[in-house]
Every structure is written in structure tokens, then in C-alpha cells.
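Q: Please design a sequence for this.
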């Protein structure tokens, strides 16, 4: 877009690096450190942001922030590859069920979060590599969906916990509804809708603006005036009441306190129910006739499947607690001190402590770690996922490697598998019969308990 001659442009050559032809983000302050600290803090705890950014402590933090960005990019790329592989495994026919469908949705949301986290790391620490085209759509794509993808992943984990809670703690109801092929949508769609509703105002928090820069008289770097784009907060984002009630407390409650409480309650109930079921099965298997023993063997098989899926869930929740607990603590700290922080900002100063900046940068890395560890969790905690993964890997291995393993039903480098369609039909029929037998055994046990 052409720049009219009447446009006011910045022509200060001191903000241009003549060697790299790049803008200097901040002029270095040639001030003694003792002088800085003597004028840095005021009596109410606020500090001068410009002087604070010239301290040695802040310079160390900037290096730490760059290190966190580099680690976010590396782990994010590895996590994207792992999530794509997890989706490929979970989408196979033998893995299709409601639980795994929700896991696919989690992996998709985590992958989107990793993409935006990588983009955010590049924008914050390596701004020269962030495309201007993405900067122009930052308020509508990058900023809101970075938060939406995080919320969607949190709510989908709650949905997985609810699904396992019904399977383990409400088996009668679960048997009645598990034949519904679209049941997973009842968990996925509300989670996505809730995440979008919680973050709906994010689309109005930032905007892209531009300024005219004319360095044509500063050397050979520029031939004429150019537009420089930047992102700034909107009036809504800077509104004090909005910051207190939505940006702080609503975010803490909707993405921290409530999910933590729900997940702890559901997982404790699942663990207690699994322990009771296993002990009851062990007691009831002694002293029964062969027919009833076979029925109970089928129940043991079904319970082992539920136990394996519950282990996947519990492993995922443990990693969620580990990675999100620091975020929850920092959010609560910020919410508790938000009034004093805003009072300092109204004076043109700041009150954010340096340790809080370090923790915030580390929390962003933990969010990337949480979104990147789906594959290791599923592989080591899920037996069926591990077996299906090995089958999928064998499809891409060279034939001479496959022939070495003759103990896994492999002949001539080709894995012998029954036709998928008939196998699926047989599995469905067996599960229906097992479900009916389980219902009979449960009713019989209930009658025996009453008498």
C-alpha cells in the first residue's frame, strides 16, 4: 500500500541498527546500576518499568525467556509429530470406540495449541521471523485460538473422565448407551462450545495497528517510507473491571479450579470402583460351577479392558495436574494481587515481580510439555494402543527387518491379519453377548446380596 506524502513518519535514525538494518527494540540505557536501584522502587511497591528493564536481573530474564522459547519450538515440533502418530493409531478400525474418539479430539486440540505456541515463541523472541501477514490477522486467529485450543483440551479431558466414570461406576447405564455410534459427539461438541464461549471476548482484546517509518536518509538500508505493523491491546482489554472479573477470576475458575475439582472427584471414584470390582470378582470366582466361571471370566476380561483405559485416563490426568498446577498457582496469585497491580499501572508503573516473570515463562513451556506427551502416555499406559502402534510401525519397516521376527505370526515379511470387516463384526457380536452375560451375572449377584 502506498504512503501519501502527508503521512507523518518516524525518521529517527537512532532506532535503526545500521549493520543489520533492523529496528532497535529498546535503546540501551547508559546508567549506573546503583543509580537505577535507588530510583527504581516507590513506597507503594511500584517500580519504573523503563529502569527495571535496564537492570542486570531483567537482562538475565530475557535470556531465560529466549531459552524457554527455543525449548517450546523444539518440544512443540516433536509433540506435533507424536500427536499425528497418535491420531493415526486411534483412528484405526480396531481402536474405534467412544473413549478413543475423545482422545483423537484431545490430540487435535493439543496439536493446534502447539502450532500457536510455536508461533507465539517466534513472535516473542524472534520477531523478525514472524511474517507480517500473520501479524495482521493476529487478533482474529493467533491470539484467540491459542487460548481456545487450551480450554478445549482441558474440557475434553474432563469429558474423557466422565466417559470412564460412567463405564466403571455406572455399568448398567453404560451398557445401554455404548452401542450409540455418535455418543462421542455428546462429549466433544459441548467441550468445544464451552471453550469457544469462555473465550468469545478474546477476539476483541487485541488489534493490529501500523506506523509509518522513513529511514531513507539514514543510509542504504531503506529506499523510502514503509509501514510497520504491531499489535496493541484494545480499550476492552485495558478496562479495569474487565481485567479483574473476566481476565483474572473467570479464567482462574473456568480453566483451573473447576476442572481440578471435577477431575479429582471423578478419578477418585473411578479408582475406588475399580478396586471394589476387582476384589468382588476375586471372591465370587471361588466355588462356582464351570458355566458361571466362564461368565465371570468374561467379566474379568471386560474389567481388564476398563482398567487399562482407566490407567490411560489416570496417567493423562496426573500429567495434567503436574503441568497445570503452576499455572493455577500463578493465576491465583495474580488474581489476589490484581488490584495493586492495576493501581501501579494507572500511575504508569508496574508491580510484577521478577520471579513471577520467570514462572510465567516456565508455565508456557509446561503447557507445551503437556500437549506433547500424549504419545508416550498412550504407548506406555495403554496395552491396546501399544499393540496397534507396533502393527502400524511394522507396515513401514523394511521386509528384511520384519522377517527377523518370526514369533509374531509374520510370514515372508507380511503380517497375517483376518479381514477387518468380518473381525469387527465378530468383536461387536462378542461384546453384545458379553454385555448380556454381564447383566445376568450382575443381577444374580444383586439377588445373592439381598438374600
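A: Design:
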Amino acid at each position: 500500500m502506498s504512503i501519501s506524502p502527508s503521512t507523518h513518519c518516524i525518521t529517527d535514525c537512532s532506532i535503526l541498527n545500521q549493520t543489520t538494518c533492523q529496528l532497535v527494540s529498546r535503546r540501551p540505557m547508559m546508567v549506573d546500576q546503583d543509580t537505577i536501584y535507588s530510583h527504581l522502587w516507590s513506597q507503594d511497591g511500584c517500580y519504573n518499568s523503563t529502569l527495571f528493564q535496564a537492570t542486570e536481573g531483567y537482562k538475565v530474564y530475557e535470556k531465560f525467556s529466549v531459552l524457554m522459547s527455543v525449548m517450546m519450538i523444539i518440544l512443540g515440533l516433536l509433540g506435533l509429530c507424536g500427536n499425528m502418530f497418535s491420531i493415526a493409531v486411534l483412528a484405526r478400525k480396531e481402536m474405534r470406540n467412544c473413549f478413543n474418539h475423545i482422545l483423537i479430539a484431545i490430540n487435535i486440540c493439543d496439536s493446534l495449541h502447539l502450532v500457536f505456541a510455536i508461533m507465539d515463541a517466534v513472535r516473542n523472541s524472534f520477531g523478525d521471523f514472524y511474517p507480517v501477514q500473520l501479524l495482521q490477522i493476529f487478533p482474529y486467529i493467533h491470539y484467540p485460538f491459542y487460548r481456545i485450543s487450551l480450554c478445549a483440551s482441558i474440557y475434553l479431558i474432563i469429558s474423557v473422565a466422565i466417559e470412564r466414570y460412567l463405564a466403571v461406576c455406572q455399568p448398567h447405564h453404560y451398557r445401554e448407551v455404548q452401542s450409540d455410534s455418535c455418543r462421542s459427539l455428546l462429549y466433544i461438541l459441548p467441550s468445544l462450545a464451552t471453550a469457544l464461549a469462555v473465550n468469545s471476548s478474546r477476539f476483541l482484546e487485541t488489534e493490529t495497528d501500523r506506523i509509518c517509518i522513513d529511514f531513507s536518509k539514514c543510509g542504504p538500508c531503506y529506499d523510502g517510507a514503509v509501514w510497520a505493523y504491531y499489535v496493541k491491546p484494545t480499550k476492552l482489554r485495558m478496562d479495569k473491571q474487565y481485567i479483574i472479573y473476566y481476565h483474572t477470576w473467570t479464567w482462574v475458575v473456568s480453566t483451573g479450579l473447576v476442572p481440578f475439582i471435577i477431575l479429582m472427584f471423578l478419578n477418585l471414584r473411578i479408582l475406588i470402583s475399580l478396586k471394589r470390582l476387582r476384589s468382588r470378582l476375586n471372591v465370587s470366582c471361588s466355588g462356582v460351577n464351570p458355566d458361571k466361571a466362564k461368565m465371570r471370566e468374561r467379566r474379568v476380561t471386560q474389567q481388564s479392558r476398563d482398567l487399562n483405559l482407566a490407567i490411560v485416563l489416570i496417567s493423562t490426568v496426573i500429567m495434567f495436574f503436574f503441568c497445570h498446577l503452576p499455572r493455577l498457582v500463578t493465576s491465583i496469585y495474580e488474581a489476589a494481587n490484581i488490584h495493586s497491580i492495576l493501581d501501579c499501572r494507572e500511575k504508569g508503573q508496574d508491580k510484577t515481580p521478577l520471579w513471577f516473570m520467570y514462572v510465567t515463562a516456565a508455565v508456557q513451556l509446561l503447557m507445551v510439555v503437556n500437549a506433547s506427551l500424549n504419545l508416550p502416555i498412550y504407548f506406555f499406559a495403554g496395552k491396546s494402543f501399544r499393540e496397534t502402534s507396533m502393527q502400524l510401525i511394522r507396515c513401514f519397516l523394511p521386509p528384511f527387518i520384519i522377517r527377523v521376527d518370526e514369533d509374531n505370526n509374520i510370514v515372508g515379511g507380511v503380517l497375517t491379519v483376518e479381514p477387518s470387516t468380518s473381525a469387527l463384526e465378530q468383536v461387536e457380536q462378542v461384546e453384545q453377548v458379553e454385555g448380556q452375560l454381564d447383566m445376568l451375572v450382575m443381577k444374580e449377584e444383586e439377588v445373592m446380596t439381598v438374600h
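Q: Thanks. Anything notable?
A: The CA atoms of residues 198 and 254 lie 8 Å apart. The chain has a mean pLDDT of 80.
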